[in-house]
Amino acid sequence: MAGVGRFGALHARVWRELGAEVVGLCDVDARRLADVAGGLGVAVVSGDLPSLLARVEPDVVVVVSDEATHADLTVTALEAGCHVFVEKPLALSGAEAWRVSAAAATAGREVVAGQISRFAAPYVRMRQTLSGGGIGRLCALRLRRDFSRQWFLSFGDRVHPVWESCIHDIDLAVSFTGRPVQRVSAVAARAAEDEAPSVVSALLEFQGGVIATVESAWLVPDSAPRTLAGALALDGSIVAEAEVLGADGILRQRLVADDLVEWTSTGAVVPDLSLWPEEDGTVGGALRQEVAYAIDVFLGRRPADRVPLQEVCWGVEAAEAVVASLAAGAPVEVPDRGPDTGRGR
Ligand SMILES: NC(=O)c1ccc[n+]([C@@H]2O[C@H](COP(=O)([O-])OP(=O)(O)OC[C@H]3O[C@@H](n4cnc5c(N)ncnc54)[C@H](O)[C@@H]3O)[C@@H](O)[C@H]2O)c1
Question: Which InterPro entries match (predicted)?
């Protein structure tokens, strides 16, 4: 595993619960690495991935490090002959994403990107209903995801916030349309003391005419009911809503539903039951589904069709265009960089 911070530690637990052996860990933070390795009982540790791969020969490298390191670490692991699970975002530019895709093809290894929303039960059902013709021809998507204000102040702006929050919904939109984005217009606002924008609204125009609005605000106050409190060592709130508008019907959902509310001595909790809930001592939900899927892909037991790398690259291209549109203050055309994206664009 490369990166054993908050989510890396949870990943290690889930991979183990699904039968994987964790043979080595690396992290640039020596104290964090020692703590997590001690807790997991993993003896082989290193401060960087190349020196770890000189000591162990894993089948799979799980990349859960800071966003800016994902593409390079993934290519390093591919060149060492490993399959790779890499957390979102796959990369911080379309060019880097396609570089990873090319490296995977050259190495003959699989890359599964951690676009967890593709495995969350409500979105899975929405996609099935759509593809089954339940609401007719897809016309538009409205996707919104708000996060805790305190997260923004602690890590939300370590890369442009689009890569932290909007990338989930941009990838979801790509998964619903199965097409690349052609054009993006975005606007942003920031709370007074912030350097990076804490509120983003983007309009994506897909090839084929579908439009999607993607909105994100990192302004949920601590007084709001907590939705994350449990398996991931991160307390706070995610408030996400999605609408899929078809010619013959509309699908609507909330990521964290309020059908279970807990009023406790430390405040109100509306616990997430879809992403990584603890069920009978193990981690369930979308994270378990996602890791189980990756293991099946890596073992050649199923095709890599739930998170196609090409679609993930389209999502990264679109996210890059959102950042570019914010910088330009104008709409941006998404450049056609990928090896296959020219088809039908
Ligand atoms: N899919 C989801 O819902 C979800 C949820 C949380 C986090 N994430 C993603 O997981 C990743 C990690 O997030 P986090 O919250 O655990 O962050 P974190 O800051 O807690 O952990 C990141 C760790 O990576 C380490 N690191 C940085 N550069 C490294 C390198 N070159 N090699 C090895 N280790 C390195 C850091 O020292 C740190 O320990 C991010 O990409 C984040 O977007 C995804």
Answer: Gfo/Idh/MocA-like_OxRdtase_N, Gfo/Idh/MocA_oxidrdct_glycsds, GFO_IDH_MocA-like_dom, NAD(P)-bd_dom_sf
